[in-house]
Amino acid sequence: MAGAVGPSGSAALSDFKFGAVDTQTIEDALLHLAQENEKAVREARGQAGSFRETRIVEFVFLLSEQWCLEKSVSYQAVEILERFMVKQAESICSQAAPVVRESEKAEPWSWRAQKEELCSTFVLRLVSCVQLASKLSFHYKIVSNVTVLNFLQALGYLYTKEELLESELAILKSLNFQINLPTPLAYVEILLEVLGYNGCLVSVKQLHGTCLTLLDLVYLLHEPIYESLLRASIENSTPMEQGGKFVSMKEDFMLLAVGIIAASAFIQNQEWWGQVVEHLHSITGIATENTAEFSYAILTHGVGASTPVRQQPGLHHLAARPLRTAATCNM
């Protein structure tokens, strides 16, 4: 479902086509993504989301744009870097814990050296994540080692091709070579496919363009948006995940995709926002209150006014022939 790449490097919306895939394939893809999402939510760790900071995400986005890579590569690179850094941070913490219990004379050189190495090679790892993501997206047009080395040299980092390959290998080994994981964009696009098939009155092609903009926004404002969701969850006693379980919500890409699409629908046509929310509920099983809350948080941080109410919306009950409900996100 990827679009063509234009001169600016982003997917050309005019070439993006919906409805070209048969319904059985859509159902299978939706079921697969729902299963992957449930696994990610179930295995979410305490450090999840720690490396989706604005400066890091902005760096990846700008670098991807400079190298003329499509949007999917940007999101993939951020997710690869996030998972890698969380693994490294957990490894450092596990080595540091025994040192704390030992005498003050202990010399914790091992974990300190690992920490220093992680900090000193962060830019290299970030660039390697972008390069790996480009290889997943473009088999015929990837970011070459020469391009990467020239970029690093311009920043004052002198690395060899061997060190660049070692960096990629270190990331792959740390993640057990499991780097081709679904991004939020994949969830957004498959849900838009289903909405189009179900006869949603809002143009899914127009929604797609707005969704890309809002998805960028959520990545860049990840921390404040999710903090506002946590505050709303506690203050209003909504069904949103609370306390320790809130960490898992940060890894719930199905919920994120639903919120993105609902917010996009509100921007495109407020009259049909309720219908879109109802369609999304029938597809994913996600409560309409959660969808409304998420879209409210996105729009509040994005436009700051004229956002949907935080209570359950007045939904338009319109007849539709939805695909088999494949996603069952438990909220």
Topology:
Layout: H1 23-42, H2 54-66, H3 71-101, H4 109-120, H5 122-137, H6 145-154, H7 161-174, H8 184-197, H9 204-220, H10 222-236, H11 246-249, H12 253-268, H13 273-284, H14 288-302
Helix pairs in contact: 1-8, 2-3, 3-4, 3-5, 5-7, 8-9, 8-12, 9-12, 10-14, 12-13, 12-14
Describe the structure.
With 331 residues, the protein is mainly alpha-helical. The chain folds into 2 domains: 112 residues, Cyclin-like (Cyclin A, domain 1), CATH 1.10.472.10; 120 residues, no CATH class. It is built from 14 helices and no strands. It starts with 22 loop residues before the first helix and ends in a 29-residue tail after the last helix. One of its GO terms (cellular component) is site of double-strand break. This is Cyclin N-terminal domain containing 1. It comes from Vombatus ursinus.
